[in-house]
Amino acid sequence: MMIDKIGGLNPLNNVQNTRKTEKSSSVRSESDSITVSKEAEKMAEAYYLDKIAQETPDVRADRIAEVKAKIKDPSYLSQAVIQSAAEGIMTSFGL
């Protein structure tokens, strides 16, 4: 026994009889736009600043080398320098 067609239909007929789509004469040429809320802008800025902070090193090696060189110099440490450093520390703590 030989089966020529499945279910009485030739599956190739559907492919051969497809119609080509006609060109659409009404094409819209509107430009797309997007609006971003103020909250989203603030969140994007905070994300960007956080990313920069994470990429920035915590230790500034150039400043550490400069301070070490100054401390090694015996004429640098004076009462005025110590007083200035103490005032800076007190100010940073809000005292």
Describe this structure as you would to a colleague.
By secondary structure, this protein is mainly α. 53% of the residues lie in helices and 0% in strands. The chain contains four helices and no strands. The longest helix has 18 residues.
Chain-wise SSE layout:
Elements: H1 11-16, H2 38-55, H3 61-72, H4 79-92
> H/E series, N to C?
HHHH
Low-confidence stretches: none
For the termini, the CA-CA separation is 103 Å
Q: Got a strand count?
A: 0
Strand content: under 5%
- Estimated structural class: mainly alpha
What summary fits the major beta sheet?
Answer: none
pLDDT averaged over residues: 79
User: Any idea what the shape is?
Assistant: elongated
Tally of helical segments: 4
Rounded radius of gyration (Å): 38 Å
Measured as a percent range, the helix fraction is 40-55%
Descriptive keywords:
95 residues, mainly alpha, 0% strand
Summarize, please.
The chain is mainly alpha-helical and 95 residues long. It is built from four helices and no strands. The protein is 53% helix and 0% strand.
